[in-house]
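Quick one:
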Amino acid sequence: MSKPPLRVGVIGCGFFAENHLAAWQHMPDVTLIAVCDLDSAKAQSAAERYGAKLVFASARDMLDSGEVAFVDIATTMRSHVELVELAAARRIPVIVQKPLAPTHAECLAIIETCKAAGVPLMVHENTRFLKPVRRAQEIIASNALGKINWGRVAFRTGHNIYGKQPYLAHEDHFVILDLGVHMLDVARYLFGDATRLYCQSQSVKPGIRGEDLATIMLQHESGVTSVVECSYASPIDPDPFPELTLQIEGTQGSLRLDPNYRLSVHSGGQTVTHDVSPTMFPWSTVPWHGTQESVFAIQRHWVECLRAGKPVETSGADSRKTYDLVFGAYTSARTGQSVSMTS
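Output:
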């Protein structure tokens, strides 16, 4: 007998939440039952377009309705601590968009709140669910490249990200927390946990408060040295936005992910190039189709784990290690010193 659909309530109906809403609507075993936004007109519009039955302007009211089996928090980071506390107090499983919170202490508080309540938590870290990233991990696991010793994970763009998200220009912690968190999580996913890092950052664009360019070197427990590059200040032509690039080297071969979803694997004296283009959903839009596919993938992963009672990949315990790296990078950039992740 098939199980009834899980009912999700989404808090936040802004720019990126559109991808969450579309992915939930696309899943036959999930019902998008409710949407919530402080802007009631925005919430009403989302409900009409994605078929949500209930509309709320208050997260507390939505969570008290008894209609929601789990909640997807797709708001900006400063609201996350309060919203997670509301969900955890009601024993409602919760997904939270990144960045998890503005400070390290608040990130840890969110994780500990859910742990103490025994509530499943997933950080919506969709970048590790990108098709080319998953394929790269499969190739590493196959041993086609031998023992991995070096890697680069990079996202460099000059795209005007401030047009859709103008608030980013006013963040004290900017590119490392907003973008670097994705790249650091991918580095952990591909190469394992890190024991030490060193970071240099710069503020290039006039008029912004935080850093918009950072380079981070990691030493991993596996022996791999990796370089994580994140930049919103790179005048690249053609600009690869919104794609990341990878380069991975091992004792028996190498891998390179180039723009336009071309994954080249050099092994055994031969180079084979794979097309790892995203699946196009009815709601996909170029160039966001890769991100949209990864949003669907991570939300699918959440549902499968929730039904099976298994921990998700980007659980609170796992994500804590990523946020340790994020704020370790800020410490390194500020002090000019490398930071041990084992102390």
